[in-house]
Every structure is written in C-alpha cells, then in structure tokens.
Amino acid sequence: MTATVARDNQVAARANDVWKVYGSGEAQVMALRGVSVEFERSRFTAIMGPSGSGKSTLMHCLAGLDSVTRGQISIGDTTVTGLGDAGLTRLRRDKVGFIFQQFNLLPTLSARENILLPLAIAGRKPDPAWFDTVIDTVGLRDRLGHRPAQLSGGQQQRVACARALVARPEVIFADEPTGNLDSRAGAEVLNFLRNSVKEHDQTIVMVTHDPAAASYADRVVFLADGQVVTELTGPTPETVLDTMKRLDVLAEADV
Amino acid sequence: MLRATLKSLLARKLRLVLSGLAVVLGVMFVSGAFVLTDTLGRSFDAVFSTAYSEVDVAVSAKPKVAVSEFEGEQVAANFPASTVDKIRSVPGVATATGVISADGARVIGTNGKVVTSFGPPQLGGNWTGDDELVELRSGRGPTRDDEIAVNATVAEAAKIKVGDRVGVLTLAPKREFTLVGVFGYSGGRDSLGGVQEVMFTEPVAQQLMLGEKGVYNSVVVRSADGVAATALRDDIARALGDQYVVKTGEQLSDEASAGLKEGLAFFNNILLGFAGVALFVGIFLILNTFSIIVAQRTRELALMRAVGGSRRQIIGAVLVEAVVIGLIAALLGLGAGVGVGALLAYVFGQFGGGLELAPIGVPVAAVVSAFVVGVLVTVVAATLPALRASRIPPIAAMQDVATPDRPLTRLTVAGAAVAAVGGALLALGLSGNAGDNTLWTILGGVLVSFVGVALLTPLISKPVVALLGRIFSWSVPGKLGRLNSGRNPRRTAITAAALMVGIALVTGVTVILNSAKSSLTALAEETIQAELVISGAQTGPRLPSFDPAVLDRAAALPGVRVVAGLYGDMAMVGGERTYVTATSDVSALRGIYKATPTSGSIDRIGPRQLLVDAKTARERGVAVGSTLLVQLTRGEQQTYTVTGIYAESDLFGGFVVPVEAARDFAVPQPNLGYLQLDPGTPVDRVLPQVEALLADSPEVSVADRASFIEQQTGQFDQLLLMIQVLLALAILIAVLGIVNTLALSVLERTRELGLLRAIGLGRGATMWMVTVEAVVISVFGALLGVAVGTGLGAAVVRALRDQGITNLVLPWSQAAVFLVLAALVGGIAAVLPAIRAARLNVLGAIAHE
Ligand SMILES: Nc1ncnc2c1ncn2[C@@H]1O[C@H](COP(=O)(O)OP(=O)(O)OP(=O)(O)O)[C@@H](O)[C@H]1O
Ligand SMILES: [Mg+2]
C-alpha cells in the first residue's frame, strides 16, 4: 500500500521500499519489510502501531540515525542512504530536528543554551524574531535561565520542542514525546506541536502509542509487523482506536 | 553478593586496568627494591668470599684518623717490615706476606683521560705473584721499577695492552710505566666486584701508594695445617698489641660485604621513595575511580538496598572489589618488580665494573610487602567511596536524577584543618626544633599538606576551572568541555590533585635547588677573587688532584700575580675529627677569599702553626696562642699553636695548617688552584699556557672564574634534572588518572554524547569537547602544583636562610613550561577517551541505559 502521492517538492521525507534486518541467522529480526511512505511538507503526521511493529526503527532510518538494509531514504532533496558520518552530521545539523521520549537536554546548560545548542553547533546565528516567537509559543520565557534539573518533565519536553523548532529544520522527528508526561502536560506539548505546523509551516513526524495524541495529527500512518498497513486523514481518537483494533486483521489481509 | 561484585568487576576490565596501574607501579618499585638488594647482596657475598679465599688472617694497623663513611676514606697507618717478621715468628703461621694495597691508583687511558670509578676502589699495590686467586692472563708480573701489571677490568677500561706505556696517577703526580702483565681472578673474573687493581714492584708501591719507603699497610697470613684461623688471629693480636687490627679472612669478607650492602641501602631508599610517590598518587586515582563507579552504580546499589541489602553488605561489596584489584595489581607489580630488580642489578653490575651477578631471587620480603602494600593502598583508597555507597538511600533506585551535589562546606572545613596541620608540621620541621625527627616531620608535613590541599581543591576548582575554561569558550564544543569539567568538582579536583602532587614536588625541588644555586653563585661571585681556577669534577669518593709543581710553574708565567693551591683532608685536631686545609700561599687567602683577620696574623703560617675561623674558634674555645694536638693521616701527632683567627665566610672556614703538613694528607696534592693575574692581563692569553702545564694532570682543568662557578653550580642542574626525571613518574601516573576519569566520564555521558551527535555535533567537535575537558583539568592540576610547590619550596628556602641560601628564585619559566606541558599532557590523555566518544554509535548511545 502506498501513501498519498504528492508533488515532489512538497515531500519533506520519503522512504522507498525500505527493509531493515537486525542480526543474522536464528536471531534475525525483520524490523521493516518494504516500507514506502512519504511525509508531506507542513503537515503533522503520526505513526502508530503495536509495540515492536517497527515505528522507532522507521523513524531512526528516516532521520539517518540508522542505516537501512535495502531501499532508499531521502530528506527534502537529499538522499540519506549512503551518506558518510560527515554527511549525516550535516544532515542532522541542517535538516532534521529531534524530540526524544526522555533525556533531551544537556544537564550542564540552561534552557536557553539548550534551545540554541543546534544553532551554536552549526555556527549559525539565531533569528531573534523567530527565537522570540518560539519561546512565546512554548511559554518558557521566565524559565530560560534554569537548568533542566530545575524544570518539570513537561517543561523539559517543551524546551526540547523549542530546540527542535528554533533551527527550522526540514522535518522534526518525535519519538513518543509525550510518553513520559501526564495528559495535561502532554496536551500542552501536542498543542504546541500542532500550532507550529499550522502557524509556522513546520513538518513533524511523531511516533505515538496514544490515540488521543495521534488525533492531534493531520494524518496517521499505521504500521504492523514492519509494514505500512493503512492510514487515516483527519483522525479523531475514536477512529484511531478503531483502526488500531482492526490492525491485526488488516495486516493478515495485507500479507 | 560476592558473585555479583566479581561479575561487575570483570565486566569493567578497562576500569580495573587503569585504576590498578598506579598500584602496579608502586608495588613494582617496592618489590624491585627488595629483589635488587637481595641479588646484589648475594653477589657481594660471593665476590668477597672469593677475594679473601687466600687469606686466613689479615693484619693492618689502626688508622691514625678514624673517618666515617660519609666523611671520606679511612687510610690505615703504615707499619715497618719488622712487623711482618714478628708475625712470621708467631707459632702456627705458615706464611706471612707484607702487602701494599691502597686506593688511589688511577690509570690514564689511551684517550688521555683518567679511568674513573663510581664506587669500587682503584687499588694500587705490590705484585706478590700469582696464586690460587690471581691468574695472569697475559705477560708477567712487574719486576723492574718502571713496570706494572693491571687487572683485566683496568686493561679494558683504559684500552691498554701488554707492552704499552701507561701513565698512572698515585700519591705522586703522573708517572709512566710499561704494562707487562694483565691478570684476572679465579673463576674467570676480570675484577672482584668492579675493583680496579694496578700492581707495582714493592718499592714503587711503597713509595707511590704509601708515601714511605720500606713499609706495608697489611699482612696476609696463611696458617699452618691444622691451625684454626680464629685461634691464630688471637695469637697474632696478642703478639702485636693494640695498635693493630687482626681479623680472619672470613671476618673481612663479611665486613666488606656488609659495608657495600649498607651502601645499597641508599639505592633501596631511592626506589622506595619512588614507590611512595607512586602509591600516594595512586591513592588519589583509586579513590576517584571508585567514587565514579559508585556514582554510576547508584541505582544498582540502591536496588540492592531496596531488596534488603544492609549497609555493611554494600561496603563489603565495594571493598571486595578493591581487594581483588589490589591483589591483581600486587601480583602484576611483583612480577614487574622482579623484572625491574633484575634489570637494575644488571645495570649496576655493568656500571660497577663488571660485578658478577648471583642468580636473581625473589625474597619473601618482596612477596609479603608487595601484597601488603598493594591491598592496603587499594582498600584504604576505596574506603571513602565504600562509605559513600553505603549511604545511598534505597529510594534512589526509583529516582531518575542522580543525587544532587552535596555542599562542599564540610569538605572545605576538613581540608582547611588538614592543611593547617600539614603547615604546622612543616613549620616545626623547618624551624629545626624537631630534633632527630626533622626529616620525617618535614616529609609528613608535605604529605599532610598535599592531602589538605587536595581536600580544598573542589572549592578552588569551581572558580579556577571556570576561569581557565574561558580560554576555550570561543567554540561550542570548547564551552561544553569546560562545563563538563566544572560539572563534578570533586571528581575534577581529585584528578587534578593527583597531577598536583607530582608537579608540586618538582616545582618545590626546583625552587630549592635554583635558590641554592643562585645563592651560591652570588656568594662565589662576590667572594672568589681569582681570574683563573684549576679544578676537576669529582666522580668517586676522592677529590681530583693535580701535580703541585704546576703551582710554581704557573706562578712563573708572565702576567700571573698570585697562585694559591688548596689541599684538604680529615684530621684529628684537639681530639676531634675535623676537615683541615692547607694552601701553598696563605697570604693569598685574603685576596682570593676576602678573608679578614679578627686577631693574630693570617698572612703567614709557620711550621706547627694553625689558622682558624672565628666561629670554630668560639666553638672550640681557642684563641691566638692556644695549643692543640694535631694528628694527620700520616706521620706522628704534633702540637700546633693557633697564630691567627679570621672572620668565617660561607665559602671558606675551618683549620688551616702549613702547606708542608699537606705531605701527610691522604692525598698530598692540591685539588684546587686559584690564579690572580696582573691587572690588564688578558685571561685568554694565560689560560692556554696553564692548560699546557696541566697536560700530565688529566683529572683537572683550568677555567676562568665564570666557567668555574658555572661548573661548580652545574651540579645543581644535574641533580635537578635527575629529580625531575624521577618525579616524571608521578606525573605519568597522574596522566593515567586523567585518562581514567575521562574514560569513565565518557562512559557515563553516553546518552548525552548521543544526543549531541543526534543534533549535529560532528566527530571532530566531539573529540575537541573531550580534549578541552582534559586540558582544563590538567592545567588546573598544574596550576595548583606550581602554586603549592612554590609555596613549599619558598618555605624551605626561607628556613635555610641561615645556611647561606639567601636568594629565593621563583620558577617562572619552569612554571610556564609545566603549564604548557600540562596542556599537552591533557591533550594526550584525552586521545583515547575522545576517540571513544567520537566513535559512539548515535542510536546505541541514545538507547543506552
Ligand atoms: N538493535 C536491534 N537489534 C535487534 N533487533 C532490534 C533492534 N532494534 C529493534 N529491534 C527489533 O525490531 C523490531 C521493531 O522494533 P522498534 O523499536 O522499531 O519497535 P516499536 O514499534 O518502536 O516498538 P515500541 O512501540 O515498543 O517502541 C522489534 O521486534 C525489535 O525487537
Ligand atoms: Mg519505539
């Protein structure tokens, strides 16, 4: 099954018949089996699926953190597959932003320094207006001087979001960004992510387990057993839950 | 519990190796010292039992001036041939041979240089034929007065062969002989323990080695069959009276061997000193490693507590790990120590002139001390981290964030107290009020001060590291590195403190030696008023000397105004052993040493007259006109009268006897010569002429005043270099500490590094970040070391002001060198951890638990 075809210049990230095999022989695990998917620019896409279905693996491959066994990955007009360390580093610097489930921040740096770190590493000057906008959207202005240890989990996650946004990457990947947060803090972060897509044309790809979280996205891609099984546009928590329930059946039918 | 500990230990081999390395080095030196002394001791025993194998009883006369080992060589008195006859007539004596054997026969090699010896004597004696012990290798024994035979060691060192004309320096200036024989000893030995031997005919040996005709300085007795050596010894002693020393060959062999072993104790102490420094620095290393391990395993340990482990069990778990590391390190150190001991014994044998080594053995003491030291040091160092581990609350297992930094107040107070105790000990030691324990008080003070400063270091580290880090803050990785180094003040502090110890010791010694050198130079420049000086570098126990005739010939050179030669020896003056000097021109003392009379006259000195400095005169209670009994190395005791007293100076002092008396000195030749030139005479013109006069006195050379002072004070530079090389070891261990800390930090921050890499930090930048952290830590350590070392050195210099060390020279240039070196060393230490950090798999690092 192929995801919605869009015009080339509107695709922020693309996987083309991607296979990922871990280990060999007896212990061989096929984490991804011929995944082809495109993520359009200025859209918020969620990836869902049962545990072990290959969500994280797909995301790592898309972001150039992991290599693929077969197939091709591209971010914007850059082909990721086959890049060396220097190329991957440049890619991460300029085109990709990350938000992890936890441990997103350097404990030695203040919130402001953490947010500006990718720009500092890349040797780029922050755009002050954009920085202000980002800070105001995440609502952290009075916390900028604090260290991560002095911030709550939700605040830390918002700092991580701000860090990913401030460099205006081609695409932001988020792996269960709300996994460690309660529903209110989670909602804050998700709202913030959706706003940055709506108001600032950011592209976001988010892995999640939570149907409610997925309903913030414009589109949900469902994975099962290393394959894309189906997808939803304009999801609600109910439709997502419903699809999840039917996922096993869908996967069977697909094979 | 035990199994869990051992498992986690094995899982972290690198940590084990690094933290154990310092202990390995320390143990290596300890056991190496034991192996060396044991091996050399047995080698000496073997050599001397061979050397005295042909002696049943030996007789010598009591020395006229008994001299301790530190003051110089003891010279046995001569006795006439009638004594030999007397011994021969004692019943039970089969043969009694009059022997001449005295130190100071120096052969001039084919290269024109004197063959030197670093310890073993250079004996000159009479050829009494070959026997069971002495084996002629080529040629024959000397029969004419211009013939000599030498042992194979001399022949080899001087590169001479039978038939060559060979110059020999003795009590008399250089004389030339024909080499007619080369001999060795039983068992194919070239030498007995490195001793050089030159054999003359009997009259020549008497003249050149004893300074008198028809005398001997020992008699070798072989007993008749069936007569016990001890009984014969007692009989002979009874027949000769108490002016003679009679001993069996066995006794002499034991004594000689014991004497050398005593000398070995010096080497032993140097090695043990190394060991001490290595272990002291090692304690810091182990303490740090264990602290980091405990911090890293906080959750693991908390879990153990949560499931019912007691505090005691936690302490036990950490200490068991320490014991295992200590045991392994001790074992490795012991192995390395045997190697080092064997190597040093070999080197010693080679430099000692070919000492034949006994088989290498491992004495029990080496094994015991290796394990005791290894385990003890490790356990002591691990105690603090173990206690800390036991205080981890079970709840820490559930908490994510590591326990926040505890405040440094208690540590700082403790540090200040310890440093104060150290300072007090130092002050006590340096003030000279500690009596016999001065050295130990000072050493203890230094050690305790180090510990105190180390405890204070975390407090200092915050501002200093922040300041140092500013230098690197221009780049993002540099800034991250700086922040990392300021992250855990305790860890940074201990790592830096280990480096501090080594650098502080080097700096302290540098301050002391440079101050001494500068003070001495200033003193010499101000005091010594001579354009040219004849002197030589001392290599063995005796001072180099030269032909006194050179003095007269130099005085006759155009442009030379005054020449004064200086002689020196130990003597008994008024029943006390003292150093006495004689000079060929007493009146020159005033000019050359700026000596000024305080009473009597110091311009002249007649036979049996004495000059003395005012301080000694006060101490001895003598004044002009006092009489004192004087016994020189040779000749009879005589009554001398004090005729002049001069103001003492730091360069010249003590009793001065007339130059005629120098004939009875152990070395009746001058060892220093001062030349004052006529005003306006160019030094360059006279110097080569004096050089020519010294052609036959190869032990000395002539130099202008500046070069002479430079030569004399140059010894300080050599000493300094030696100590610096030795202490480099401590610095090396500290570098291991930096590597260790960084490696563990990199491990600990795996996820962080992964994150940084994920958001675009390149490999090079990652390496730079780790390098900056290392450089900041090591430069911080060096700064501390320089500061503490300068303080210690300045305190010692201050305390030595009465000893004439008046200039305090601060080691600015050395300090700069140390800082640059430390930066370099930090960079080197960072290489491996940095590569490791850069090679991290980004994905794996993020998933890292
Ligand atoms: N490094 C690895 N080595 C071997 N197998 C792996 C590795 N990483 C993932 N896998 C396997 O690949 C499959 C997909 O893993 P992945 O982490 O992508 O799942 P996921 O969808 O993110 O699951 P979850 O929702 O639990 O996070 C799983 O079967 C997993 O066991
Ligand atoms: Mg996952």
Automatic annotation (TrEMBL), chain A:
Gene Ontology CC, one term: membrane protein complex
Pfam families per record: ABC_tran
Signal peptide region: none
SMART domains assigned to the protein according to its UniProt record, in alphabetical order: AAA
PROSITE patterns: ABC_TRANSPORTER_2
Keyword Transport found: yes
GO terms for MF: ATP binding; ATP hydrolysis activity; transmembrane transporter activity
Entries under PANTHER family matching the protein: CELL DIVISION ATP-BINDING PROTEIN FTSE, LIPOPROTEIN-RELEASING SYSTEM ATP-BINDING PROTEIN LOLD
Family: Belongs to the ABC transporter superfamily.
Key words of the record: ATP-binding, Nucleotide-binding, Transport
ABC transporter domain: residues covered: 13-250
Protein name according to UniProt: Putative ABC transport system ATP-binding protein
Domain of life assignment: Bacteria
Organism this protein belongs to: Micromonospora pattaloongensis
TrEMBL record, chain B:
Domain ABC3 transporter permease C-terminal stretches: 274-394, 726-841
Keyword list, A-Z: Cell membrane, Membrane, Transmembrane, Transmembrane helix
Membrane topology designation: Multi-pass membrane protein
GO-annotated cellular components: plasma membrane
Subcellular locations according to the entry: Cell membrane
UniProt-listed PANTHER family: ABC TRANSPORTER PERMEASE YTRF, MEMBRANE COMPONENT OF TRANSPORTER-RELATED
Family, similarity comment: Belongs to the ABC-4 integral membrane protein family.
UniProt name for this protein: Putative ABC transport system permease protein
Organism: Micromonospora pattaloongensis
